[in-house]
Amino acid sequence: MRQLALLIALIAAAPAWAGGNETSFPAAPDGTVQFVTPSGNIGCLYMPAGGTATYATLSGQEELHCTRVAPTYTVVILDHAQDHPAAIASGEVPGLDAGPVLPYGRFWQHGGFTCLSATSGLTCINSTGAGLRMARAGVTTW
Q1: Phi, psi of 29 (to 5 degrees)
Q2: Are 113 and 122 in contact (CB under 8 A)?
Q3: What is the rounded average pLDDT for all residues in the chain?
Q4: Hey, which end of the chain has fewer CB within 10 Å, N or C?
Q5: 3-state secondary structure at position 138
Q6: Residue 3 has what pLDDT?
Q7: Per-residue DSSP letter, 59
Q8: CA neighbor of 34 nearest in space, from 81, 83, 67
Q9: What is the pLDDT of residue 81?
Q10: How far apart are CA 113 and CA 127, in angstroms?
C-alpha cells in the first residue's frame, strides 16, 4: 500500500512538471546520463539500451542505476520494462561521481524513466510504473 501511495504522489505532481519543472542533462558520448540530488547522498546513472563499451545492460534494454551512499551503500537497478527492481547492498562504498544536480522540486525524464527530486528523497519510475524511492530513511522498491 505504501508503494502505491508513493506512485500516486509522483503522478499527482505531474501538473507541476508541466509548469517548467523539468531538468535535463546532456548525455555523455557513450549515451549515459548522470545526476545527483542536492544532498550529494543519492545519484543515478542512465544506461542506454545495450549499455556501453564497458557495460552490457542485463536485458539489452535501457537501465537506471540509482545509488544511496549513507547510511548504508545501496544500489538499485531499474530496467526499462522490469516489473519490480531489487536493491543491491554492497560492502564497498565508492561514493558518487560528481554530476549535475537535480534540484529539489524538479524532475528528470529520459527514455522510459522519470525521477522526482524532493527533500524527502528521490523517486523514480519506469515505463511500466515499477520504481524506487531512495532517502536517508530507507530504500523502497515496487
Answers
A1: -55, -30
A2: no
A3: 83
A4: N
A5: strand
A6: 46
A7: S
A8: 67
A9: 78
A10: 6
Does the pLDDT at position 11 exceed 90?
no
Domain ranges of the chain: 2-141
CB neighbourhood size of 11 (10 A): 13
Burial class (CB in 10 A: 0-12, 13-18, 19+), 98: exposed
SS3 1: coil
Using CA atoms, how far residue 26 sits from 57, 71, 109, in Å, is 20, 30, 12
Helical ranges in the chain per DSSP H: 2-12, 14-16
Q: How far apart are CA 15 and CA 66, in angstroms?
A: 25
Reading the block at residue 86, the C-alpha cell is 531489487
As given in the structure block, the three cell numbers for residue 137 are 530513511
pTM (predicted TM-score):
0.82
The angle formed by the CA atoms of residues 105, 111 and 112, to the nearest 5 degrees, is: 80
Q: In this model, does residue 113 exceed pLDDT 90? A: yes
CA atoms within 13 A on the CB side of 28: 14
**Are residues 69 and 92 in contact, defined by beta-carbon separation less than 8 angstroms?**
no
User: Which residue matches cell numbers 554530476?
Assistant: 99
